[in-house]
Design goal:
two-stranded antiparallel sheet; 3 domains; two-stranded antiparallel ribbon; disordered N terminus; 23 helices; flat; mainly alpha
C-alpha cells in the first residue's frame, strides 16, 4: 500500500510506502524528545522500577532469613550440650506410654456408652487402666530429676554466650576497659554431663521394672463386656508389644549420646524442613519445624480448591454458553462483587456463621452415623476452606470465562453444523479448546488461596499440630495453623534479629518458592497442552 506525495506543482508524483510517510510526519518535540519517545521511556521506566523493587524484596527476604540456619545450629548445640537431648530420649518413653493411655481411654468411653453409662460394669477394667497409668511413675521421676539438671546447665551456658556477645560488642566500640571487666564462666561439659552417663544403670533398672509391671497388667486385663470392642483391646496388647520391642533401641540411643557430637548445618536444615514441631518461647527448647504449618496450608488450600473449582468453572460455562443476556447481567457482577468484600469480613463471617453452622450440623441425629461426628472445634480446616473457596471463586470464574470467550466461534458453529447438541459442543469442543486458560485460572486461584492470611488466621483454629489422619475425613474437621497465619500472628511480637524472627522469614522464603513452583507448573501445563493440540 502506498500514497502519492507531490514534490512540487509541476513535478511528477512519487510513490512512498505508508510506513515511510508516517515516519516523515513532523511530531512536536520538547527538549529534543517526542511524545512517543516520552511514553516509551515512561513505560520502560515503570517496568524497570517494578523489577528493581521485586529484586530488593527478594534480596531482603533472603538476607534476613538466610541467617536462620546459623542461629538454629547454635540453638541445637545448646540443646545437645546441656543434656536436654538426653532427657528427651527418656521422655519419649513417657510420651509413648501416655499415647497408650489415651487409646485405652477411647475404648473405655465407647464401652461406657454401650453399658448405658453404668460405671460398675467397668470397675475391673478401670482398675487395670489405673495400674497401667501408674506404671510410668518411675520414668516420670527420672525425667523430672534430670530435666532440672539439664535446665540449670542450659542457663549457665546461655549466660556465658550472652556475656561473650557483650564483650565483643564492647571491643567493637573501643570500650576495652568495660570489656576486660566481663568474666565469662567456663562450663566443663565433660564433668557436668557425667551425671547422664552414670544414670544408664538407673534407666536399665527402670526398664526392667516397667516391662515386668506392664506385662503383668496386660496379662490380667479383663475381657471387654462388649465383644465388638475386644479387637481394640487386642490391638492395645499388640501396641504394648511394639513398645516393648523398642526398648533396646532406646537404650542404644542413650549409650550413643555424646555432648561433643557436632551439630552440622545439614542437621539445622533438616530440623526446619522436616521438623514436626513449631514451639517458641519454651522454657525447655524452641523448635522451628515447618511441617505442621505446611501441612495445614496444603490441606486448607487443596480442600478450598476442590470446593471452588466445580462452582467457578460451572458458573463460567453457564454464563458464557447457556445464560441469557439478562442472566449474564445479574450473575456475573454478583460473582465478581465477592472479591470486593474484605477478607477480615469473611473471617468474622466464618467465626460467627460458618463454623457454628458446621458444628451444629454435626450434632444432628441424622448424621450420627458419621464416625467423627459430632465435632468439638468449630474453627478448623473445613471452616477455613469453605471461606477460602468463596473468595477464590471470582478469580477462577473470571479467568475461566475469559478463556471460554476467547475460543473462536467457528469451533462451536462447526460443531453445531455437524449435528452436535449444545452440551456435546460444550463438553467436546469448548472445554478442551479453553483448557489451557481454565488450568491457568485454577492454578492462579490456588495461589490466591495459599497467599490468604486473615481468613486462615481467624478460622483455621490456630493449633500448630499435624492432623490425625487415622480418622480419615475427620482430619478435615481438626484445627491447624498455616504458614501465612504464623507470620501474621508472630511477626509483630518477635525481637528483631532473633532466631524466631529469622525463622519467620524462612517461612516467607518457602512461600516464595511455592509461588514460583505454581507459576512454573502453570506455564508447563499450558505449554504441553498447546503442543498436544498443535
Amino acid at each position: 500500500m502506498s500514497i502519492e506525495e507531490p514534490i512540487s506543482k509541476n513535478a511528477p508524483r512519487v510513490k512512498m510506502p505508508i510506513a515511510d510517510a508516517l515516519r516523515s510526519i513532523q511530531r512536536p518535540k520538547f527538549m529534543g524528545i517526542t511524545f512517543d519517545d516520552a511514553m516509551h521511556y515512561f513505560f520502560r521506566g515503570n517496568a524497570t522500577v517494578s523489577i528493581l523493587v521485586l529484586f530488593l524484596i527478594i534480596l531482603f527476604l533472603f538476607k534476613e532469613g538466610g541467617e536462620f540456619f546459623g542461629q538454629n545450629t547454635q540453638n541445637l548445640e545448646i540443646y545437645r550440650k546441656a543434656g536436654l537431648e538426653y532427657v528427651d530420649i527418656v521422655r519419649s518413653r513417657v510420651d509413648d506410654h501416655r499415647s497408650l493411655e489415651r487409646f485405652l481411654g477411647d475404648i473405655r468411653i465407647q464401652e461406657f456408652k454401650n453399658q448405658n453409662e453404668n460405671a460398675e460394669a467397668l470397675a475391673a477394667f478401670d482398675a487395670s487402666v489405673e495400674r497401667f497409668s501408674a506404671a510410668i511413675d518411675g520414668y516420670q521421676g527420672f525425667v523430672s530429676e534430670y530435666a532440672d539438671i539439664a535446665k540449670e546447665l542450659k542457663e549457665k551456658y546461655k549466660v556465658g554466650l550472652d556475656l561473650e556477645v557483650a564483650k565483643k560488642n564492647f571491643q567493637k566500640e573501643g570500650k576495652f576497659e568495660e570489656s576486660s571487666k566481663i568474666e565469662i564462666p567456663v562450663v566443663d561439659f565433660e564433668a557436668e554431663t557425667k551425671v547422664y552417663r552414670d544414670s544408664l544403670t538407673q534407666f536399665k533398672a527402670l526398664n526392667e521394672t516397667y516391662q515386668a509391671e506392664v506385662q503383668s497388667i496386660v496379662d490380667s486385663f479383663p475381657p471387654m463386656p462388649t465383644a465388638e470392642l475386644q479387637p481394640r483391646l487386642d490391638k492395645f496388647r499388640d501396641l504394648v508389644k511394639i513398645q516393648r520391642d523398642n526398648v533396646a533401641k532406646l537404650e542404644g540411643d542413650l549409650l550413643l549420646w555424646d555432648w561433643k557430637k557436632p551439630v552440622g548445618w545439614s542437621e539445622s536444615f533438616t530440623s526446619f524442613v522436616f521438623g514436626r514441631n513449631w514451639l517458641t518461647a519454651s522454657f525447655w527448647q524452641d523448635w522451628y519445624g515447618i511441617v505442621p504449618l505446611f501441612v495445614g496450608s496444603l490441606m486448607i488450600a487443596v480442600t478450598a480448591i476442590l470446593i471452588a473449582v466445580p462452582f467457578a468453572i460451572g458458573a463460567a460455562i453457564y454464563v458464557n454458553q447457556v445464560a441469557s443476556a439478562r442472566e449474564q447481567n445479574i450473575i456475573k457482577p454478583y460473582i465478581e462483587f465477592v472479591s470486593a468484600v474484605p477478607s477480615v469480613v469473611w473471617g468474622f463471617f466464618g467465626i460467627a456463621v460458618v463454623g457454628q453452622l458446621i458444628r451444629t450440623f454435626s450434632e444432628q441425629g441424622v448424621v450420627s452415623w458419621v464416625p467423627f461426628f459430632p465435632i468439638s472445634e468449630r474453627l478448623n480446616i473445613a471452616t477455613a476452606s469453605c471461606l477460602l473457596a468463596i473468595m477464590a471463586i471470582p478469580t477462577i470464574f473470571s479467568l475461566a470465562e475469559d478463556a471460554i470467550q476467547n475460543v473462536p466461534k467457528a469451533y462451536t458453529e462447526s460443531s453445531l453444523a455437524l449435528g452436535a447438541t449444545k452440551f456435546q459442543t460444550i463438553w467436546i469442543i469448548m472445554i478442551p479448546s479453553a483448557l489451557s486458560g481454565i488450568v491457568s485460572a485454577i492454578i492462579l486461584g490456588l495461589g490466591r488461596v495459599i497467599g490468604e492470611t486473615m481468613v486462615v488466621l481467624l478460622c483455621s483454629g490456630g493449633r500448630i499440630k499435624i492432623p490425625d489422619f487415622s480418622s480419615g475425613l475427620g482430619a478435615l474437621f481438626q484445627p491447624v495453623h498455616t504458614m501465612t497465619g504464623i507470620i501474621a500472628q508472630e511477626m509483630g511480637e518477635v525481637v528483631n534479629g532473633s532466631i524466631h524472627y529469622r525463622a519467620l522469614f524462612m517461612v516467607g522464603i518457602v512461600l516464595f518458592f511455592i509461588s514460583l513452583a505454581l507459576n512454573y507448573a502453570a506455564q508447563q501445563v499450558v505449554k504441553r497442552y498447546k503442543i498436544s493440540i498443535g
